[in-house]
Design a protein that fits this description.
By secondary structure, the protein is of the alpha/beta class. The protein folds into 2 domains: 24-271, Aspartate Aminotransferase, domain 2 (3-Layer(aba) Sandwich); 274-398, Aspartate Aminotransferase, domain 1. 39% of the residues lie in helices and 14% in strands. It is built from 12 helices and 12 strands. It has helices at residues 20-40, 47-59, 71-81, 99-106, 125-135, 167-177, 230-240, 261-271, 274-295, 324-333, 363-371, 383-398, and strands at 64-68, 88-92, 110-113, 136-139, 142-145, 151-156, 180-184, 205-209, 223-227, 301-302, 317-321, 372-375. The strands form 3 sheets. It has a 7-stranded mixed sheet, with helices on both faces. Helix 3 packs across helix 7. Bound molecules: pyridoxal-5'-phosphate. Pyridoxal-5'-phosphate is lined by residues 70-72, 96-97, 99-100, 158, 184, 186-187, 209, 211, 221, 223.
Length: 399
């Protein structure tokens, strides 16, 4: 870019995420792992996939891991394995990545949205109880949506930004209604509650994503389902290969949801560093917390409230701020990358207009969509960069 006197180039560049540094540190190891797969010419469901499945299942405190083609496909195949389809409804959050509700609709079921909690950005247990009270009733042995008549079959909580949902009350409500629970663990690998219980181990199936921006990221798309029930795990395995067992004989209709051996090889190398990276993210979050407290910006900036206990893995560090859009402009000019996760809550997406939700239906989700901004939090950032981000934000509010 040409230098200009009126638009001085920023003193520093702090991108939202930079994976190049991580790659530089692991290049030798990763290239050796890739070469090993190339030498074997075993590309589909081989030893690298089995090793990854064992490691991730154990890490997530589950007995079984089923590697799949993406986090989205993990959710899709989980819904298929639990036989959720037309006439069924799945309770979930409208403040999440599209795939959460998108997959529910793709199997022919209906997303039944429930608002989030102000502090955690996750499904609110109180809002869930209100939803059950107001919208659901027991007909015969089935809980149904009073308005639509749809069977309420499952709950899909999302551990957003790397913070575990308040699982105990959510599971109590789910058990009372006899719901299947599919956890969206895409942003929360290794997140824990106060007792050390991990994301993915509470419900029937946990769905992880290894999209490159997640804490454990592949060199492309990849994901995994984790589960404890062996029959359910077997069903997930079959659905991953078109539901065929033996090969070419199909008790169920599945799809091609396989994870690549090459992706598994990369992930097996990276997995050994996951805890160290998560510790760096936590350290960066603690630095931001303290630096924003020192900056004393009054009500303009609210740092993410901490849970009383547990392990937050900080896939994202998300502020609530005043004047968000001008702030983002200011930060861009200062060389600081930010993002909004997510600008439009799912109940207001055009494709979900058929659900009939007006603006105002889920006030906490709508407010979060208007107020939040994610800052750079990746492990390789140094304190000079973090302080620069805080100073740039302080500059904006002090002008
Ligand atoms: C990333 C993500 C997904 C989808 O994962 P992909 O691997 O990108 O398909 C689903 N849900 C949430 C909350 C995510 O952040």
């Amino acid at each position: 870019m040409p230098l200009s006197l009126t638009q001085p180039s920023p003193a520093m560049q702090v991108p939202l995420l930079d994976l190049k540094q991580q790659y530089r540190e692991l290049k030798g190891e990763i290239q050796a792992a890739i070469e090993k797969v190339c030498a074997s010419q075993h590309f589909i469901l081989g030893p690298q996939v089995r090793e990854l499945e064992t490691k991730i299942a154990e890490y997530s405190q589950c007995r079984h891991g089923i590697g799949v083609s993406s986090g989205t496909d993990a959710l899709l195949v989980a819904l298929m394995a639990l036989e959720i389809g037309a006439g069924d409804e799945v309770i979930t959050s409208p403040y999440t990545f599209f795939a959460t509700a998108g997959t529910i609709a793709r199997v022919g079921a209906r997303p039944l949205f429930c608002d989030i909690d102000h502090d955690s950005f996750n499904l609110s247990p109180a809002a869930l109880e209100r939803l059950i009270e107001e919208r659901c009733e027991l007909r015969g042995r089935e809980w149904v949506n009073r308005r639509t008549g749809g069977r309420i079959k499952a709950l899909m909580p999302v551990h957003l930004y790397g913070r575990l949902c308040d699982m105990d009350p959510l599971m109590t409500s789910a058990r009372r209604l006899g719901l299947q629970v599919i956890e969206d663990v895409a942003q929360a690998i290794g997140a824990e509650d106060g007792a050390g219980k991990r994301a993915g181990s509470f419900g029937h199936i946990g769905c992880l994503s290894f999209f490159p921006t997640k804490n454990l990221g592949a060199f492309g798309d990849a994901g995994m389902c984790v589960a404890n029930d062996p029959a359910l795990a077997e069903r997930l395995e079959l659905l991953r290969v078109h539901g065929g067992k033996p090969k070419y004989y199909h008790p169920f209709i599945g799809g091609n949801f396989r994870i690549d051996e090459l992706q598994a090889a990369v992930l097996n190398v990276k997995f050994e560093h996951l805890d160290a990276w998560t510790a760096r993210r936590q350290k960066n979050a603690a630095f931001y917390d303290a630096a924003f407290a020192r900056a004393d910006l009054g009500g303009a900036v609210q740092t993410p409230p901490r849970a009383a206990a547990g392990r937050h893995i900080y896939n994202q560090y998300v502020l609530r701020v005043r004047d968000r859009n001008p702030l983002r402009q200011h930060l861009m000019a200062a060389g600081v990358g930010t993002e909004i996760y997510y600008p439009v809550p799912l109940h207001l997406q055009k494709c979900f207009a058929y659900l009939g939700h007006a603006s105002g239906a889920f006030p906490e989700s709508e407010r979060a969509a208007e107020e939040t901004v994610a800052l750079p939090i990746y492990p390789e950032l140094d304190e000079t960069q973090l302080q620069y981000v805080v100073d740039a934000i302080a500059d904006f509010y002090r002008r």
